[in-house]
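Hey all, sorry for the wall of text incoming. These are the two entities for the joint prediction.
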Amino acid sequence: MDSEIKIVLDACGGDNAPDEIIKGAYEALKKKDNLHIIFAGPEEEIRQKAEAYPDMPTDRVSYCNATEVIEMAEPPVKAIMHKKDSSIVKGMNLVKNGEADGFISAGSTGAVLVGGQLIIGKAKGVKRAPLAPVIPTMNGASLLIDCGANVDARPEHLVSFAKMGSIYMENVLKKKNPTVGLLSIGTEEEKGNALVKQTLPLLKECSGINFIGPVEARDLPFGVADVVVTEAFAGNIALKMYEGTAKMLMSVLKESLTANFRSKIGAAMALPSLKRHMKAFDVSRYGGAPLLGLKGLVVKAHGSSKAVEIKNTIFQCMAFSKEDIIGKIAAEMNKEEQ
Amino acid sequence: MDSEIKIVLDACGGDNAPDEIIKGAYEALKKKDNLHIIFAGPEEEIRQKAEAYPDMPTDRVSYCNATEVIEMAEPPVKAIMHKKDSSIVKGMNLVKNGEADGFISAGSTGAVLVGGQLIIGKAKGVKRAPLAPVIPTMNGASLLIDCGANVDARPEHLVSFAKMGSIYMENVLKKKNPTVGLLSIGTEEEKGNALVKQTLPLLKECSGINFIGPVEARDLPFGVADVVVTEAFAGNIALKMYEGTAKMLMSVLKESLTANFRSKIGAAMALPSLKRHMKAFDVSRYGGAPLLGLKGLVVKAHGSSKAVEIKNTIFQCMAFSKEDIIGKIAAEMNKEEQ
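and here's what came out:
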């Protein structure tokens, strides 16, 4: 049997907490014998709900009592500093102290980012810890790095994102020799802002990555590169535009297909094929967005995560831990420092 | 009758030149008695094609012979400096010299931007001339300003974009008291990069615009603001991500609806409703993207423009000219300077 992996789950974070969080954990525990879950949250309530599953493997479940909740709208630095008894602060401390292998939250992105940096801390040689969601594409999936952790990054930060992202895609998503693109406003090298122009020569010279040059946002949904490197402000805008456009078009599609009797019949006939094709874009199977470059593993699950996303995020953490991504990133970053 | 408006059309620009350009001009000429079109391009070829329309109003068509073509991949500054006999350079010179009211090209965006600034020049008091495409939304349309003219803009430039964009939306798209949002990575004021944080207080204090605060990319497709102000790099990424995501989803939708016999029948039944709903997102009716803040009118039509887009871009230019947007922007910018 593989060695035990302990994951802390923020039982208070996200739109569907705690029920879907607990359900996701339950489903993951049933599949993986070497998984141990620690729920961070109000112990009594969580225990009661968890033990309501008759076949919950209670010997592989424990609790970290936390009485405070960090709300989505709270200023993150203040929340992390003051809410010492919150599920995020207490849960992250378990990772920091080596009592758990990873931490997952579907709660406040800001608090997860700040907590990761302040409580767990950056690994030696890492200057910025990027948030790196996996986005679905026509080709499979791409890693968009950074999407919200560090605005106003410098060229050397983007180079380290390219390295960390390549390690993640190669080892967790099992993409051999992943391609790396630099997000820009044209594929020609003379286009782009000052940051892109300064970063380009550094990425070209960088050994150990498969750099393919500047890539355009319009090609991201088609999977133009496995790792798309960008500063967090632009990355966040690309990610949110992707989500927003897909959501808007799906709502128009739904509205048009249910508009009248004829369209409803048509929709019913086309639905199986439509669902089959759309399934490829279901990002839930890739889990959440890891915060890379920390001393411990932190993953931000989507705020709207249901049990299936939580389960897959747990599996993602297990792969991350098993493949020793933290060790591999540390080795790469310290090679860079010499 | 309204006074005559003369528009120069780059007959060499875009994927469908010259045929669709000529057709679009023909259709516009049939609708508007006060329109005069000047085709910039190889005169003999264009004249032959234009006069092949038996009822072409030849008294309202003239030609500006241009023997060179600026290719899409050419470095724009060099192209504008050296290709003096290109349709873009010669066409823009007509606007500069007051021989035409506006210039439209579906060719190289870079060359149009550079040519606009170098040949026609910025209006007094304007420090940056932004490119401002109209994007379709669930609410109608929004102006995304700037989308490619000026990377690395400063806060005062963004304030002038807010003013110019408001004038355009109010007068050309007839949106009363248009709302202005600042593109950011959250609606909270503490989020965003340095540029956003420095621009926010300036926009709040700015009189004459209807500023509603920071807006998120995910809300753009839903029409969160009439004018979305942003620096060109982020704006271009938002625009291209919008285009790319829509294109990708439409191709998946098409593939899924034609996948088998059953889905094809369903699609055929649902299609009328689907087409009706999707029509709202047809951006062609808003014309091209104006380059605002110049001494003369320059509009970049989409590279893939067909006759209908060209026709609508001509109508947009006529509204722009009739409403004296250039005069209104100049008045606003010079008020600012005092």
